[in-house]
Design brief:
mainly beta; 5-stranded antiparallel sheet
């Protein structure tokens, strides 16, 4: 079987700006390195996201985000390059 045991290292950074108490924007960056322990495979993954948040109440918010993910793997079947969008 294809063993997926791995060591995962992740770094995340956010640069945000509060336009008002209800409206925030941010740019998020994530880097992950996965080292698989039972197979000869390493993955390097990056993600850059632009995010807008609106707080309706202190407990209710809406988020819209878009960005791009990219990276490489020692396994040629793995493809990380793609656009990301969500709400």
């Amino acid at each position: 079987p294809n063993e997926r045991s791995r060591i995962l290292n992740t770094f995340i950074a956010t640069l945000g700006y509060n336009i008002s108490s209800k409206f925030q924007t941010a740019i998020d960056y994530q880097f992950s390195w996965s080292h698989f322990t039972q197979q000869a495979r390493d993955d390097l993954y990056h993600q850059v996201i632009g995010r807008v948040t609106y707080n309706f109440t202190p407990r209710t918010q809406a988020n819209i985000f878009a960005g791009y993910s990219f990276g490489n793997s020692s396994d040629d079947r793995i493809e990380f390059n793609s656009f990301i969008f969500g709400a």
